[in-house]
Amino acid sequence: MELLVLLYALATLYFLLMVWKWVGAKRDQECYILDYQCYKPTDDRMLSTKFCGEVIKRTKNLGLLEYKFLLRAIVSAGLGEQTYAPRIMFSGREDNPTLLDGISEMEEFFEDCIANLLSRSGVSPSEIDVLVVNVAMLSAVPSLSARIINRYKMRDDIKVFNLTAMGCSASLISVDIVKNLFKSYKNLFALVVTSESLSPNWYSGNDRSMILTNCLFRSGGSAILLTNKRAMKNRAMFRLKCLVRTHHGARDESYGCCMQKEDEQGRLGIYLGKTLPKAATRALADNLRQISPKILPVRELVRFMVVTLARKMNRSSSNKTTGGPKTEVNFKTGVDHFCVHTGGKAVIDGIGMSLNLSEYDVEPARMTLHRFGNTSASSIWYVLGYMEAKKRLKKGDKVFMVSFGAGFKCNSSLWEVMRDLGDGNVWKDCIDRYPVKSTDNPFMEKYGWINQEDPSTFQVPEFI
């Protein structure tokens, strides 16, 4: 009998030990954001309406029809007069970029953003265990990640990932890489660096499907410091709850809707096809279908199933294709704040409609687009910075991020706020002016006369 009791006791102790080890392993796999920093270029790189007109004028391949198209695109884009461009634009050399232009643009960002992040967090470069760099449209030798390692003299055993061609959704891909590494290695610091090199990627042709990117993309970038150290939990800003990646590259229609290519005259640019909205809608729907069960409470999922079933039964009994109660999922039951990618006004509107968001919910994305433009993969971190600067983020809140990218990709994640946040960050000098009453820009007032011009008699004036 005593032997049997001893065996039961040993079995119980073994079971408790396995549970303890499992809980400990799960705790070590947590992914925290310790700090993040968004890049603010210097004021001499700010794009005014007047300067934008000068840039458009010196693009010699444009005619009146292209001017009218650009005017409509810029007026409806939602960008203000405080966005930033690379230095090559201000020297008038956008048609003849060099490799050094692109590298210098990135190194200026590295010098400011990474240095500020490490200084503010108190983490030295030698403590960084993982470095993930994503810059979609610049590939250099040595790589951009190697340049960061050389600049900050990081360790020779650092784990390095250098991503290119991942588009506007790359920062969440980078976070996913870090999250997976955290599952296998304990006590790590990871640095994610995300930006875009615009210097070599100005489109100087007249293909409308490729001109549009000139109106939307602006200089920017961000650096994010992540860790799975238990000791850092109380210092962390956010904890990753889940992350879902959706890739529709196997569908030809989705694959070809956004790509870098040459136009008929051999000028390189980013092509945005007419199927892009449809591809984005499909990718978002599939992504939401996967992440919804992970982030929404059971009561909301049950409500959705019951309402959907009732709608189907109503259609069946009445032989109608419409009618019945609505079946939208209420994402606000599991999400407090929404970080929407600033791909453009239409993108923000589309996501807002899909998720049934209010103007308050999409305000951070609209204001980020107005102030900084589309900064590619770093955009969602500027949106997050807006929420923080507005003191909206309270301990326990859930923040949902969603972004799109060429391929075609839709990536999303849910973060939990670990403590009350209210740092002014990159927004500190202007947050009191936001939200602005109107996101209209003065282009129509200054250049609206173009719409009255006759193509047969039009000549570009000396000053426009």
Automatic annotation (TrEMBL):
Pathway per the UniProt entry:
Lipid metabolism; fatty acid biosynthesis
The alphabetized UniProt keywords are:
Acyltransferase, Signal, Transferase
Q: What is its EC number?
A: 2.3.1.-
Q: Which SUPFAM superfamilies match?
A: Thiolase-like
Domain of life of the organism encoding this protein: Eukaryota
Q: Where is the active site?
A: 168, 247, 337, 341, 370, 374
Residues in the signal sequence: 1-25
Per UniProt, residues of the Beta-ketoacyl-[acyl-carrier-protein] synthase III C-terminal domain are 335-416
Q: Which residues form the FAE domain?
A: 25-313
Listed under GO cellular component are: membrane
As for family, the record states:
Belongs to the thiolase-like superfamily. Chalcone/stilbene synthases family.
This one is known as 3-ketoacyl-CoA synthase
